[in-house]
Amino acid sequence: MGIKLSNRVQRMEPSATIKLFSEAKKMMAEGIDIVNFGVGEPDFDTPEKIKNSGKQAIDDNFTKYTVTSGIPELKEAIIKKFKHDNNLDYKPGEIIVTPGAKAAIAEALAVICDLGDKIVIPAPYWVSYPTQVKMVDGEPIIAKTEEQNSYKITGELLQEIVDNEGQVTGIILNSPGNPTGSVYTKDELAEIAEICYANGIVIIADEIYEKLIYDGEEHISIVNTNDKIQDLTIVINGVSKAYAMTGWRLGYAAGPSEIIDNMAKLQGQTASCVIGISQKAAITALEMEDSEIQNMVDTFKKRRDFLVQSLNEIEGIECKMPLGAFYAFPNVSYYIDNTDFNGTDELSQHILKNAHVAVVSGKAFGMDNHLRFSYANSMENLEKGIQRFKNCLLELI
Ligand SMILES: Cc1ncc(COP(=O)(O)O)c(C=O)c1O
User: Fold this and answer.
1) Of 3, 252, 328, 348, which has the fewest CB atoms closer than 10 Å, so is most exposed?
2) What spacing in Å lies between the alpha carbon of 10 and ligand 1's midpoint?
3) Are the C-beta atoms of residues 369 and 336 closer than 8 Å to each other?
């Protein structure tokens, strides 16, 4: 007799990026030379001094359970980071350290969502948001954004959703954004904050790409735009992207103590705590000057410039210049409208099989006429991959 699976897991979809990565890996294992534009992690090594802190923690036998919400020294470092980078004040009881930013978002959603509670997610979105909402029995309300607004939700659109949907429990905002690289301005955030405050909507502000920002753009936290919104906002951040520490699994959240306490209650019954070694290493990361990661940011910028220019040179492709993160999100509708492919899932499969280039379908991000390229890859691979991609597309027309 088969095992009965819960409705919960049956509602969930496997992460599209992880699925693509496993397919590309399988082909690589067969000896095929794949250029992988699918990855969502920096291709740099974790900086030496962060690694040394981790090694030191092992040598010091800092290898036991820690307090669930994070060791006090790390919380202090997070509080200092918020003050220094964002001019925000938090107390230790308003901070939780989590196994990655992903876990922080999942916990936050579990704390605010009951059956059928509505969570607004601007599309295109990071692949995990809608599934995470469904995981806690919430209802994702997908807000389709416009390309001409750089794929950002406007106050007007949010107000329209509130008017149509009635009670909205929360919204997930991501700036700088994955997959678009869009960065919200202070005025745009202020408008959204105003509506959220007026309607008691909890904001989950995913700021994981805060430090990967280009062209002199400034990262603004939504909490800075309205003096009443801190009590309604859960700010999500972590060390994965800025310090090339994806595998250390360390994120954090800051928000009202009532929410943070309940996230800790959940975490205490699931992960228990974040690995102590990672917590020690994260203190070193957060104490680093931005100048120490500038080299990585400059390298990403050079790659972005090359990739976006190369994409725009391909017939029929339009790619907006992303201002942050490490993704380009070109519009490829020309190659959907003028071929027999049924959407970008099929197009990206064709490109993987024929050009040996892995790119993620826009469908996975809620916008099916785009593809997502990660430029967390060497310049050599970017050049090789874009040439193959271009040849493959041109053969279709
Ligand atoms: C927008 C966004 N938020 C959160 C995460 C998760 O980061 P972490 O590695 O800290 O779980 C990612 C990772 O790809 C992301 O792109």
Assistant:
1) 3
2) 23
3) yes
